[in-house]
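Model the whole thing, not chain by chain.
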Amino acid sequence: MTSLAANAFSGKLRLPGFWTVVTILAVLLLAVFLILPILNVFAISFFDAKSGELGISNYIQVFTRRYYTTALWNTLLIGVLGMLGACLIGVPLAFCTSRYRIRGRAVIATFAVLVLCAPPFIGAYAWIMLFGSNGAVTNFLEAFGINVPTIYGIPGIVLVFSLKFFPYIYLMTENALNTINKSFEDAAENLGCTTFERFMKVTLPLVFPAVSTGAIICFVLSIADFGTPAILGHGVRTLSTIAYSQYTSEMAGTPTMAVTISMVMIAISMGALLLQRRILAKRRYAGAMTSRPVKKSMSRAKSALVHGFCYLVVFIAMLPSFTVVYTSFLETNGPVFTGGFGLDSYARIMRDSPAAIANSFMFALAAVVLIAIVSGLLSFIVVRRDNFVAGSLDLLLMVPYLIPGIVMAIGYVATFRHPPFDITGTALIIVLIVFIRRLPYGVRSTTSILRQIKPSIEEAAVNLGASPAKTFTSVTVPLMMPGLIIGSLMSFITAINELSSTLILYTSKTITMPVLIYIQVIDGEFGTAAALSTVLLVSTGLCVFAVFRLSESKESAFV
Amino acid sequence: MAAVEISNIRKSYGDVLALSGINISIPSGSFFTLLGPSGCGKTTLLRTIAGFHQQDSGGIGVEGQAIEHMPAHKRDVGMVFQDYAVFPHISVYDNIAFGLKQRKVAKREIAERVSKILKVVQLTPYASRMPHELSGGQQQRVGLARALVINPKVLLMDEPLSNLDAKLRVDLRREIRSIQQSMNMTTVYVTHDQEEALAMSDIVCVMYGGIIQQAATPLEVYNNPSNRFVASFVGANNFFELTLSPSGASIAGLSVNLPQAAKLASGETVVAAIRPEYISINPDTTTPETVTLTAKVRQVSFTGRELTVAAVLPSGEEIEAITAPSADILALHPDDQVTLAFPADKVQLYADGVTGARLS
């Protein structure tokens, strides 16, 4: 009897387990929709743009021709300056809110998150409406004979990036500052450091990992951003804008040069990330949370100064959003503002572009449903399965963060245009690209909650006779639900605001709100653009509100 | 027939050998404890039986059926976890009914069996509570009831009491033992607490370095350790070097009369062990069968029921004695000279090394 039973369960007869099947499917999914498009982009870049010969001639062009080298230089400059600007705003703000008693700290944090989640290109065109050549502030000041420095070109782009991306630095640094054991700072003081020395020698090094992680995000996002340099650039070209214009001009043939530029962008992002990892590898601080930092009260003058700084920063950062909402309620006559207030712009978008609004919500929702299902399964593999595939999946899910939307979109066109798998021009391709680009947000959220669920709870279910699949649905999923919901909301926010990849993939039938806003801004239709942007802002705001209500970590859930 | 038969189990993680040559036979209805320090392989062995780890080789039989290649959810062995692992999203009742529902037991029978087991673990009033409303001890009762209600062929318990406070630990261990005895449930229990192991078990199996050092009754393990590791891990013990020369044996330079050392070759490195409770301090009379040593007091500590005297031999080796409290001994000061005496036949001899073999 013993031998019979042993035979029944011997290795040869066993069917592959549930998780083996899921792992294989996950690998296939990522291989087709993530790796293949990137490999395609990579391969195309090695065939000469004109002759089609194999070689590195395209790269030689990118690194020698002035047209490309200026763009490369501009991109790096904007990336570094945008990152530094964000640090200069974010670090002091974090220090103020974590070390001093600030009234309305929650308001500051909420504004920071709203800035983070607002569609990135809104900043660019709102600043034009204020400080552009015909901007409200420009005209007002010129009436008094004051000349306003131009908002166009590199300074303007850097300003927009600094104000747009500082919340990453602020939220991460504040979180780190709040979890530094106060005893370290007390010890430094006890050993004879002045307040400033203490900050430079102890506090800052301790939060460096957080600051640098935030900084690297700012850098990668700055060099990948398309909308801001496209709107504010005025002749200043960056890699993403020339990739786009090369792509649109090469529409008939293979977008070789656009693709080559894209590879250079990916290389820069990866280089930056690897550099930061390397620096961080040597800095691991074991921290025991025995005494939390205390918030100091301040003298009246200092308090006014610190409060003034904090509120000014978030006010300026929110200014584009306020401007957009305000503009959306102005009466217009075509592209011209008539001066009165009204709902004219809203009436026009409801009449002219209901499809864009419906598309945006439908595509984002479809992508989010996919993200929720896949991220639940993927995070289980990453967290619970201890094998080579699980380890590489974790790493692979970093890739979408690094690949600029334009690059991914070009890869999708190159990959999915061959019948019978030709899905270019369909809603499916947009849903899929948004899904793959925002999947990491979902996975990160479900992964972090799954790490808090003790594996013994799942083992108990298995031990009581539940199959692995049944254990996942009846025990893991219910316990993972808060993370799933928060992850879905966050991916919804980023999905509905997606511009850079959809701009390449859209057709008149699959146009979305961000694409339409971009087109209208380029055409000078600020009124309807503002109304559409307000719709985006409000739906984003509602999602942020929901995350705040559901998540215990509130604003730090967003970074 | 033995309820659990483990033969030649081997398990490695890369280059690290976690289990090797494990052979165990557990009689039906007995309480079998795996005892050892952390990293000794006891939990790995338990989880291998449960099917959470796959062995490299070897067999596991439960009631005559080979289960070593079965998936974990088909093994029909109940498990109680160190961190309770009570499902936090369902009620106490649903937690306990979980395994029965998996087995497609009829609803009425589920209700009967759950209410019966709730009575056994004294949780009847808590059936509709959610787990977070329960204390740690109550949650572990849910864990126990949940494993018992499916009538498993064998019950596995992984340090179930280690997250509870000391008083509750003693209460609950008595309760677990009496439930186990009344249900005649074959149990494999893992602990690093030697007192717990001695108090609860029919058989204590001491493990170290992935190898079974000794498996025997609690009394046998305490009184007759098979090697130096068991002697040091189970109960308190003093070890010092025994020097063997043609003229006889000596400890810390003092010659001692140990008949059990007579057969040993001179020049061999031998360790002598004496339990602290056999040592008397400054005794009035001694016999030829008594070993006496002189030592310097380091510390006297009073713990209520007994006195512990820590002292140092002239060789620098430390020695600890446990005696009934007395005013004379309490009055000793550090650096006072004392005479320590113990019966020669209580001294056990071991070969050198952590798991040195028993020589006497």
